[in-house]
Write a structure and sequence with these properties.
It contains 21 helices and 23 strands. By secondary structure, it is of the alpha/beta class. It has a 10-stranded mixed beta sheet with strand order 10-11-9-6-12-13-14-17-16-15, sandwiched between helices. A 6-stranded parallel beta sheet has the order 20-19-18-21-22-23, sandwiched between helices. Helix 1 runs antiparallel to helix 2 and helix 5 runs antiparallel to helix 21. The two termini are about 40 Å apart. The chain binds 6-O-phosphono-beta-D-fructofuranose.
């Protein structure tokens, strides 16, 4: 409404200025025209009486001249009439102004007109040469011009009213047109913003109704981009903000997660009951709270012995079982498929290839065939689960390198975000893989490909550069391959904050007492812990060797320090894993023999799966935690230890080759290959003053709290939303171009 008044006001002002400028000209034009009319009348009077006056003057008949002049002067427009005999005025009619002077009025040899002032009026004096009886004189006729002035004034008033009327009408019309245009513009912009916010694939505006300029599109786009940047950087990420980001940015979108390992495994126990197991998997512990917050569908391999008994006819089960918030869709694999795809290609091929732990990768063609066909199987399951043609699909890990391309072929409008949870080796190392081109091609079916660190992103781009025809944009960190762009981004994974496993934990002092009692350790025994899957990348043997060195070089710790190594059996079908377990058991025995005695065992090796509650209790009971991975994408055990220590005590000893060391720089950073240096770090941790422990732990807790797993997921989903908006705008522009070309 305000805008209409503003528009109308401006139009009125312009009209007023025009009127003020035009009016004086109009008045003077009417006055001129009236004066000419009077001159004409004077001439008519003169012409009609010239001969008669000339004769009467020649006869010197003063009486008749005066009578004639009085008669003429009785005309309402004529003021006075007289005869100038030289400079003498003769026979002036009654109303002749006393100030009239023949000397001024009657000088010309031809007719002349002049204006003189009489009282308040202008008077037109018309002077006509007239010879009478051989004498030269002038007949003078005086007209009152006040009526001309009056006419000019009236004309000015009428003109003013007419112009004002036209101006008012024009202003009202302009305001109405402006209002209609503004309303349509506003509607189209609102429509564009709402579409942009919803992430809807519809055109941002109805172009045939109201074309939205390229500039406005750009501004909208920039606004969106800057808002997202600020959000991602400053949001206090938690399940609620993740849900809000999802509904603001991706409302109406369908989210499908796919991983090999399922978040909930149903196993039949020896007693015949069905037991629920949460697997020891960093991927699961990170992703599960995120999917719980977002909802959607999680597609994974059904690996439990009672999994088939717990699904519906569509192989779906609502989870978490206690309070379901998303759907787990299980995919069944034969033993043969598992051997080839999971144990073979994924864990004997890609796992050692990507982890530089000096275990030789094995590449069997038969395994690769299974890897390919299982990826196909998952692609089919995902397409069957997708309810829309443009879902957001979060592909997890090295089990599914071919899956992004397979999904892209089936669902071209899907937004595929792939996260590679393990390291990506340098291009030369990756080059030994016989399937390198196929793997790269498969991964580049993704819209966004994420790694834990920038170094892994760089390694991937180097591999692309070395082995496939593509264009790499190093500024944007993106790869153009086969006409499609894939963004390569670092997203450091993390854990939920606050961790669920912390709920219901006893105070730290209690945990210390309970754990020591349970393990048969004296109440004041200093404890170190290591907790992971029994994997050769974790450096379990290396840390035991460091403890051996510690006890050898610092005999004071004999009887005063014990190391609790919890190791969950994993991939036991594979020889390397079985050998590792045997070696670890042998080494623990050996160290215990050499340094133990009188009931003292420096190494407690607990080979079984521990539930999150037990893990957190152990973390809280410990004086230090060792994460000595030989190579690790991130390592969430390090972050879980920090999260468990709300007493701000305890020291983290962390491998420089775990991605977590980039974020947790207040840990004691070690080279796990250097047993001596690691033993020194253990000694330093055991003697570190409490204030120093507190300062380090506080900084690390702040870091994990802020950069939690909701932020990890939030950043990826916001990037996906940004991408969808950009793609939508591109589609819109392309459609506009097509339409323009068709109309041309
Ligand atoms: O490190 C990547 C990762 O997927 C972890 O999340 C997980 O601990 C492991 O690899 C896979 O374990 P599994 O083979 O038991 O699923």
């Amino acid at each position: 409404m305000r805008i209409i008044f503003r528009f109308g006001g401006i139009a009125m002002l312009v009209a007023a200025i025009v009127i003020l400028a035009v009016l004086p000209f109009a008045t003077s034009f009417v006055e001129q025209w009236s004066r000419r009319d009077v001159e004409l009348r004077s001439r008519l009077v003169f012409n009609s009486v010239r001969d008669q006056v000339s004769g009467l003057l020649a006869r010197n008949d003063a009486q008749k001249v005066s009578a004639l002049f009085e008669r003429i002067a009785s005309d309402e427009r004529v003021l006075a009439i007289g005869y100038c005999d030289g400079q003498e005025l003769r026979f002036p009619s009654r109303n002749m102004p006393p100030s009239f002077s023949c000397a001024e009025a009657a000088r010309s040899d031809s007719e002349s007109f002049s204006i003189v002032r009489n009282q308040d009026h202008n008077v037109l004096v018309s002077s006509f040469p007239l010879n009478a009886g051989g004498r030269r004189g002038h007949l003078v006729v005086l007209h009152d011009l006040s009526y001309a002035e009056q006419r000019g004034g009236e004309a000015r008033n009428y003109l003013f009213l007419a112009l004002a009327g036209v101006a008012f009408g024009a202003a009202a019309l302009a305001a109405m047109i402006a209002a209609i245009i503004m309303r349509r513009w506003l509607a189209s912009i609102r429509q564009a913003v709402e579409h942009a916010r919803s992430g809807n694939a519809q055109p941002a505006v109805e172009e045939n109704i109201m074309p939205l300029g390229q500039e406005i599109r750009d501004v909208l786009h920039e606004l969106e981009a800057s808002r997202r940047t600020i959000d991602a950087a400053h949001t206090d990420w938690n399940p609620a903000t993740l849900r809000a980001a999802l509904s603001n940015e991706l409302s109406g979108s369908e989210v499908i997660v796919v991983s090999n390992r399922e978040p909930y495994i149903h196993n039949r126990t020896e007693s015949g009951e069905i037991a629920l197991q949460i697997p020891a998997s960093g991927l699961v512990s990170a992703l599960e709270p995120v999917v719980r917050a977002c909802g959607g569908t999680w597609v994974a391999h059904g690996s439990g012995t009672a999994d088939r008994e717990t699904v519906d006819v569509n192989d779906r089960v609502p989870v978490p079982p206690s309070h379901p918030s998303y759907t787990l869709r299980r995919v069944w694999l034969t033993e043969e498929e598992q051997d080839g795809y999971y144990y073979g290609a994924a864990n004997e091929g890609l796992w050692p290839l990507c982890h530089i732990a000096f275990v030789r990768p094995v590449f069997r063609e038969a395994d690769w065939q299974f890897y390919r066909s299982v990826n196909e199987k998952f692609a089919q399951a995902i397409v069957a689960e997708a309810k829309r043609e443009d879902p957001i699909i979060l592909v997890q890990d090295y089990h599914f390198a071919l899956l992004p391309r397979m999904i892209r072929d089936r669902l071209p409008r899907a937004t595929i975000v792939t996260f590679w949870h393990i390291p990506w080796p340098n291009a030369e190392t990756f080059g030994i893989c016989p399937w390198r081109e196929e793997i790269i091609d498969g991964l580049l079916g993704s819209s966004i490909l994420g790694f834990h660190t920038q170094a892994h992103c760089n390694n991937f781009m180097d591999a692309v550069d070395s082995y496939v025809e593509s264009r790499i944009d190093r500024e944007k960190d993106s790869v153009f391959f086969g006409g499609e762009e894939t963004l390569i981004r670092p997203y450091p994974i993390s854990i939920e904050w606050p961790p669920t496993a912390l709920e219901g934990q006893k105070p730290v002092e209690e945990c210390r007492r309970i754990v020591r009692e349970r393990l048969g350790l004296s109440p004041d025994m200093r404890i170190g812990v290591g907790i992971e899957r029994f994997d050769y990348t974790k450096g379990i043997l290396d840390r035991m060797q460091a403890i051996d060195v510690l006890l050898t070089e610092n005999p004071d710790w004999h009887g005063n320090f014990a190391f609790v190594q919890v190791a969950a059996p994993t991939r036991s079908k594979l020889q390397n894993y079985r050998i590792l377990q045997e070696e670890a058991e042998a080494l623990a025995r050996d160290i215990n023999q050499r340094h133990g005695g009188d009931g003292y065992e420096p190494i407690k090796l607990l080979i079984r799966h521990h539930e999150p509650d037990e893990v957190f209790e152990l973390f809280r009971a410990a004086d230090l935690c060792i994460v000595s991975s030989l190579h690790d994408g991130m390592n969430l055990v390090a972050k879980e230890f920090v999260a468990a220590r709300d007493d701000e005590q305890g020291v983290l000893i962390l491998s420089a080759f775990a991605g977590a060391s980039r974020e947790l720089s207040e840990a004691l950073i070690v080279n796990p290959y250097n047993a001596h240096a690691m033993s020194e770090a253990i000694n330093r941790a055991l003697t570190m003053p409490q204030p120093e422990q507190r300062e380090r732990m506080r900084l690390m807790r702040d870091q994990v709290k802020e950069r939690n797993v909701y932020r990890w997921a939030g950043q990826m989903l916001l990037a996906a939303s940004r991408l969808r908006k950009q793609q939508r705008i591109r589609r819109l522009i392309a459609r506009g171009r097509k339409r323009a070309a068709a109309n041309a």
